[in-house]
Structures are given as C-alpha cells and as structure tokens.
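User: Predict the complex.
Assistant: Input components as received:
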Amino acid sequence: MMREKISDGMKKGLVHETGMIAHGRGEAFDYLLGEKTIPPADDAAVAAAAYLKKAKNAVISINGNVAVLSARECVELAETAGAGIEINLFHRTAERVEKLVKFMEGAGARDVLGMEADARIPGLEHDRGKCDRDGIYSADVVLVPLEDGDRCEALKKMGKQVITVDLNPLSRTARTADVTVVDNVVRAIPNITRHIREKHDWNGIIKKWDNRKCLKECLEYIEHRLSSFY
Amino acid sequence: MMREKISDGMKKGLVHETGMIAHGRGEAFDYLLGEKTIPPADDAAVAAAAYLKKAKNAVISINGNVAVLSARECVELAETAGAGIEINLFHRTAERVEKLVKFMEGAGARDVLGMEADARIPGLEHDRGKCDRDGIYSADVVLVPLEDGDRCEALKKMGKQVITVDLNPLSRTARTADVTVVDNVVRAIPNITRHIREKHDWNGIIKKWDNRKCLKECLEYIEHRLSSFY
C-alpha cells in the first residue's frame, strides 16, 4: 500500500523520482526492524513529544514522501502539538510546493506554509535553502521527517532543536538530529501524537535524553534480529 | 551515477517504476556491506562461475534494472560463459521487452532472447511466466540477478540450478537460489566473469558449496559492521 502511494504520488507530481529510491532504502531498513515500532524508537517518540510540547514555535517540515504517506497523521500531530506545517522540498519547484500545499489542505491542514519562501536556511544551495520567515526560519523546534543530512545540519547550525524520523540509524540525518525516531513515518507520527496527549515529566525527559545511546540501541536491536535469521 | 542510470532508465521506459523502489532497497543493503565485495560474496562468485562453467545450456535473465546498471558486464559474462541472454520481466509488456532487447544489442549483445515468449514457467501468473522455449525454459542453469522470490522458486521447481545476485541476504530469492551472490550487480557480474577465466577445481567447488553457510557469513559480516558504528 505504501509503495502504491509513493508510486501514485510520483505520477501526480507530488513525489520526486528520487523519492521512490529513498522509499526503497526505507523499506529495507523497516524490514530489518521487523516493520514495527521497536522499544528505543518508542523512547525517541516520547522525547520528540517532549521537545514539541516545550517548543515556543514548532514547525513540521513536509516533503512529497511524508505527505503521500502520512498527511492526515501530520495534520493531527500539528493540531495536537500546536505546530505549524511547512512544505519544504529538496527538489523544489513552485509547482510542486503548490500541489503539496493543496494536498495537505485536502487532508485537513490549515495555513500551510512554504509558498512565501521569503527567507533562507544559511549554508544550503539557493533553491534548497528556501523557507518561510514565519515558519521554519523562525521556529525553535523543527520536525523534519525523511530529511537529508545537509539540511538537518544546516538547521542545527541555525540553533534549532531538530527532531527527525529516519529508518536508517546510520544516516547523517539520524546522527545530526537532537531526537531521531528510527521508525516508519506512518507509525512514528501517530505515536508522537499519542505521547503528547499523555502526561509526562517533559523537562525530565529532555534533560535525560541521549540520542546517541538511543541510536546504539536501535543498531543493537537490528544486530540481534539479524543473528536470529539463520 | 547508478541512481541516475535507474532514473534515466525509468524515463526511457526501460525500468518499471517499482524498479526505482527496488533499487533503493538495494542501496540500503549495499550501504550495510560498505559498498564493496565482501569475502563471502566473492566465494559465491566463484561458485557461480563453477555452475556456469559446468552448465550445458546457461541463460542470463535480464530485467530493466540489470540492463541499465550492467548491460556491458552481462554481455561480457555471457560471452565468457557461453551463456544466452534473455529479457525476462516481472512487469512484462512487449514494448518494454523490445526496448530492452535493443538496449542490450547496443551494449554488444547478439541473439537476445525474450521476444518469442513461446513457453511458460509453471506456477506463475500468465504474463509473468512467459519465457522463450530456447532460452530460460530449456536452460539447466539460470542466472537471475535482482529477481523476485516467486520466480526464483518457480525456476527451482522446474529443476534448474539457479544463481542470483541479491544485496539482501534475507530475501526469499536469496534463500531459494542455489548460489546467492550478496553483492551489487555492477561488482558481482564482472567478478563472476573474472573467476570463470581463472582455473579452478569446478567440480570440487560445486560439491562443497553451501549457500546457507554463505548467507550466514554475509549476515555475520553486516552484524560486525553495525556493531562498529557507535
């Protein structure tokens, strides 16, 4: 089903062709996880909830793959967390941004950002750095699911808290973010929403959060699974 | 470069869109191998050479991804092994078969099979089972790089020796084949060719070959690599 959504999304101009290959990479890692939310990924989802809960101005950055896979889930998370939604693309064209804004509106999103592109993320190529002044540019916490490493690093250099969802625990994005949820977006996003609705000691969670340790636990989980196959 | 070849291949109608996603899955596993030929994959390439060398009638099955990534390498292997080349597609259309025959001819292939489709691999859906009577249907050894599990199993049930190249050591194809080369086609195919040109005790290699043990060694290699990351 996910594969069809990505494939249809490409035909409709929502997903860039390289998004198909990226989806395949994700499939491989999801297979290694057993296609479920593993315990350290659930811990990371709680940490993500804490950062979003304590944010003054959080923004969820949406690309083509995230939209076609989990538009409604992202809208629900944005509403629950009081976060903004911004279309932000690696292969940016005004046409694709507009299509994705409409797609997100179709899933119930309001005031979708990304069309203004009146600010720049420093350190990125011109088109890739474009963002909205009232959105990602001025956010203190950014959730960037399925993001590339350069953008993740550039956002960190701007002093933001960066949360990502990435199935590859070894990717540069995974290693750069403050919170890395090693899980499929279709499971991770609603899981973060669920945790936000719970009562947690948010400050305590942020204080204790060790992303490197979490990534190590994800790798150990995969190693253990691999050793059980033959 | 490989990503561009796959992407261009899709635009030209050589690669099916799901081939893009399959390529991404391969990328992820190749990353886990360190994007090089690991020792157990080299052992498997020697075993593949042995099976091809001892074959009476070997055929290399070519799909869109294999063609755009390694057409010349496959032509060289076919010439060295005295094997035939057949275009055989999961998402078969006569148009795509014809395009791929021409593409392989452009890479130097002669007498490319796959257009006749005058026989069937039993146990597969109608279009997916189509093959050439003088090609895959009557072959004793078939090299099916980047193959799906159903087809690999169906070929085994026909009593053939099946060699595959698959970056995922856990896939059904990997587990079904007689020889599984866990390596990227762009490295595996020329490596098999190189081994065919060497002098080996081919009968002894076939006698001793343990594919399950090889797959276990590949997994252990990946586990070891994962444990070195953090």
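DSSP finds eleven helices and seven strands in chain A.
Let me know if you want any component modeled separately.
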